[in-house]
Amino acid sequence: MATEQDVRTAVRSFITTNIPDALILADDAKLISTRLMDSIVALKLVNYLEESFKIEFEAHEVVQENLDSIDIIVSFVQSKMK
Amino acid sequence: MISHPLVGKISSIAYQFPDSPALIENDGSSLTYRELQVRVSEIVESLQLAGVCPGQRVALLQNKSCLHIATLLAVAECRAIIVPIDPQAPLHRIEYLLGDLQPHFLIAESKRVPASVIESAKQNSHFTDSYSLLQFHTSAIANSDLAYILYTSGSTGMPKGVCISHEALDAFVNWSTTTVPLSNSDRVASIASTHFDLSLYDIFVALSCGAALYLFDSEIVKNARMMTKMLSENKITSIYATPSFLSAIVLYGKIEKYQWTVMRQVLFAGEVFATKHLHALMGTWREARYYNLYGPTETNVCVWYEVVTKENERTAPYPIGKICEGLHFQVDASGELLIGGKHVASGYLNSAELTEDKFFTLEGIRWFKTGDKVTQDNQGNLVYAGRIDRMIKRRGYRIEPIEIENALLHHSVIRESAVTTFANEEGEIQIAAFIVMQKDKSESAASLKTFLLKYLPDYMVPDRIIEMSEFPKTSSGKTDYKMLREKISPDI
């Protein structure tokens, strides 16, 4: 099973590819509330996480509270893998 | 008082189908046609008591809800001018719009009314618990023939109000109810916010046909996963949305998880629909008829095309099609499309010069120069071929780059700004802002984006902000946008 570090590396890799303006972003920096990540990129990220870690987001889980920073995303993905 | 013709149609539906659902919100709260009629009558009474008169401008700063739609219909019934304003817009923008509009009345959710607006209101009185009605003393002359003012991105660097007459609104509704009709058995998804012209079909066509209108607010609309679930669960039969919204349903909605047997009509407008995603949608919503509708806010829908065949090998976008019955078109020497007839707006609010530049009347027919280039295919269909100017069409929104450039210049560290577009790996249009900062100053792209949200709606915030030491110039000394475009690619 993927470790926390695996998830963090994958999330960082997605973000640096899809949000070039966030290259030097801290893991606790806000992504959605600052508008660095827009709704379409957030949906792409959800698809990517689902494929990478064989998890499934319920429709109501695709929200800012679960996707607003690298730390938050990592912890949410880990909770889904349990 | 003689009823407003469109509100009158909705009233007659209330007699015919009193207990049918008219409006349904995300959370399930709803109004039947009888309840809607009662609500509209109550609000009309309140508005008249407050002094709302025909031809006065009534700004509506409300989230999409049953109450908002009822209020909007009540304003129409008073023959006042409906001006929906996005309550989620930045306060700077709301203040600008209200300053430009000089409304006679503002009906707003109290918490979204900027303090400066309250200051400038000469009187105010409570409307309901959560809404306030502010009255202004405005000396401007009433425009008795206008039904709506819709604000759209402006080439002067600030938003501009498109003035839509009763005649234009009626003509559009009549065309729609003939060509893409709805019935009492339809369940219609309202995706667009009411400050966009797509909503006119949802509100006036759906309700005058007795359909059930499902109101989805802007937060849910952004979540394609949730939207797909709600479209399925509510057994939606008709939807009018942008290709970007429908593509997101295909790409991110898990559309294959659901049973789709009742979707019968899909209308789309605002931008080119990538054929790959359109075909994927057609493969899933198999029973539906698909219509590519074309028309800027200044004309509403004026050209239309029914996509009837699924040509899997086709990659070129479908045509925008043929002119709506009763309208006229011309393509001038530069390839620009000109539209004439009853759907055409009166002009721009407070912008005589721009109105004169873009509109003209010839032999009693009002014409609008769209700024869109078209060609014709061998069946005589019009085919969209880009813009004659810098206007950006992205995710169904029209954006004047100068608005973004101006907003960037509000920041003290930015000396120059230039906005252009590029395509990402999926071929989607993205916005890039190039900036030159003041000497020895710096600011991160992230903090500049946050800054821009004070002035611009989120769909106008650039995807990339790129710092340069200076801009490339053309031989005449102007910013070389072509060179800037070449500097950006998905690989950067």
CATH class of the largest domain in chain B: Alpha Beta
Spatial strand arrangement across the major sheet of chain B: 2-1-11-10-12-13-14-15-16
Tell me the span between the first and last alpha carbons of chain A: 10 Å
Give me the oligomer status. Answer: heterodimer
Name the CATH superfamily assignment of chain A: ACP-like
Any idea of the CATH topology of chain A?
Non-ribosomal Peptide Synthetase Peptidyl Carrier Protein, Chain A
Give the overall shape of chain B, derived from the CA principal axes: globular
Q: From the coordinates shown, what is the CATH architecture of chain A?
A: Orthogonal Bundle
Residues in helix, % of chain B: 25-40%
Q: What can you tell me about this protein's structure?
A:
The complex is a heterodimer of chains A (82) and B (492). Chain A has 82 residues and is mainly alpha-helical. Chain A has one domain (4-81): ACP-like (Non-ribosomal Peptide Synthetase Peptidyl Carrier Protein, Chain A). Chain A contains 4 helices and no strands. In chain A, helix 1 (4-18) packs antiparallel against helix 2 and helix 1 packs across helix 4. The longest helix of chain A has 15 residues, at 4-18. Chain A is globular, with a radius of gyration of 11 Å. Chain B folds into 2 domains: 5-373, Rossmann fold; 400-487, 2-Layer Sandwich (GMP Synthetase, Chain A, domain 3). Chain B is 30% helix and 27% strand. Chain B has 492 residues and is α/β, with parallel strands linked by helices. In chain B, the strands form 6 sheets. Chain B has a 9-stranded mixed beta sheet, sandwiched between helices. In chain B, strands 4-3-5-7-6 form a 5-stranded mixed beta sheet, covered by helices on one side. In chain B, strand 14 and strand 15 (303-307) form a beta hairpin. The interface between A and B is medium-sized, with 21 and 26 residues.
